Amino acid sequence: MTAAMRVMSSLTLTLFFSIICCSLTEKLSNASSPNIIIMLMDDMGWGDLGVLGQPSKETPNLDAMAAQGMLFPNFYTANPLCSPSRAALLTGRLPVRNGFYTTNGHARNAYTPQEIVGGISKDEILLPQIMKKKGYVSKIVGKWHLGHRPQYLPLKNGFDEWFGAPDCHFGPYNSSIRPNIPVYNNSEMLGRYYEEFKIDRKTGESNLTQMYLLEGVDFIRRQTEAQRPFFLYWAPDATHAPVYASKPFLGQSQRGRYGDAVMELDYSVGHILLWLKRLGIENDTFVFFTSDNGAALTSGPNEGKHYK
């Protein structure tokens, strides 16, 4: 998708890993290891935020985060597709090196729906594996998308906890050949999208973002109380088609259902930042917000119907 090749408000892999690695090397005197939160959105465009020019100004928490922190407006995501972009983020290596590369039609591992058996190579070293050696506890909340077979799942690749799904929320499906995508709590399958975890394709209503928010906050609270440094990889997928939002946010945006999803994600980011302050760890936590690739026309108000 061409939008993904536009300048995005994300960190280059070099800068991103420089910051992370510096925090994991020699500790400063009387200082503990900083907590690290990466908030990775799905198909959210750089122009969806008020701070980057969206005229409806429906992202007050993210706009405030940008004003109070650092904004990186001149960098590119590693790939215009979900899986290779995420693989690059977690490995620090470009898709052509980590095995996830180019587009659906050409890549060996560029996309991992249920029919594909591949996934992240066991030879790759992921960020949570590095951090584990420094005493960090790591959790992924939301979309993984680096392989759905058991050997490729997050707990086999350095994460200590996981709540979410191995793939995107495509569906609904109703056959044994292509069942609905499963949702996991660690290694236990809790149910499936469109079944136990409802997504109403007609109205766009789903409580998934709220579930992901609660899981993220719970992890932050537990690790803070245990005085353990943590890495939270928070990866909701509400802005990926078919777009969804919970009932309190549906119909609230000037930008249709997609705007509703963005508003709920903005609210969730604000809630997480508020909890960092409540727990007294806001100055001991790096928080990064970015997107896996640019906005997709299929995620817009009419979900691509007028862009054939």
Rg from C-alpha positions? 18 Å
Helix content: 25-40%
Show unreliable segments: 1-12, 304-308
Instruction: For the record, give the distance between the C-alpha atoms at the N and C termini, rounded to a whole number.
Output: 13 Å
Q: Total number of helical segments?
A: 7
The side-by-side strand order for the widest beta sheet comes to 5-4-3-2-6-1-7
**Mean pLDDT, as a whole number?**
86
Architecture overview:
The chain has 308 residues and is α/β, with parallel strands linked by helices. Helices cover 27% and strands 13% of the residues. The protein contains 7 helices and 7 strands. The protein has a 7-stranded mixed β-sheet. A hairpin with a 2-residue loop joins strand 4 (182-185) and strand 5 (188-192). The two termini are 13 Å apart. Mean pLDDT is 86; it is low at 1-12 and 304-308.
What keyword list fits this structure?
308 residues, 27% helix, alpha/beta, 7-stranded mixed sheet, globular, single chain
